[in-house]
Amino acid sequence: MAEPTPRRNEPRLRPAPLLFEPAQVAEDPEHFFDLESIDDPRALLARSTELTQAFRAAADRAVEFQAIAAAQLADPRRFDRLTPADIAEQAEWTEDYAKKMVEFGRDLMRGVEGPGHVDPV
Fold first, then answer.
1. Contact 18, 55 (CB under 8 A)
2. pLDDT in tens, 19-78
3. Which of 60, 73, 78, 97 is most deeply packed, by most CB within 10 A?
4. Using CA atoms, how far apart are residues 37 and 39, in angstroms rounded to an integer?
5. Distant-in-sequence contacts of 40-49, Cβ < 8 A, 24+ apart
6. Which of these, 68, 26, 33, lies nearest to 48 by C-alpha position?
7. What is the DSSP letter of 32?
8. Is the pTM of this model over 0.85?
9. Which residues contact 88 (CB under 8 A, 6 or more apart)?
């Protein structure tokens, strides 16, 4: 199970680095971060676990940035603000999810993280 995303007042754990693969290697569907070349099952488990944690951390972080962007786009002080429906269309979300993401983003920007706070995902 993924660890919860650390909030602004907690230090972030540094997951394993995601190393980019050369284009010709990435085209091979059997190739994935060189995991197929690891023969030792212990080493394979360790590296694949590191990658899993790194991808989860990256996904959690990306969701936070989506929420902040949604909140900024919906800011009523902006002359070009977007409605939740517009944001939903652009991000390929439902309108209800866009509304939750806008509120989550506003909470993140205000630094509000309490025990009753729920991540929309």
1. yes
2. 555 555 556 667 788 888 899 999 999 999 999 999 999 999 999 999 999 999 999 999
3. 73
4. 6
5. 47/16
6. 33
7. S
8. no
9. 94, 95, 97, 98
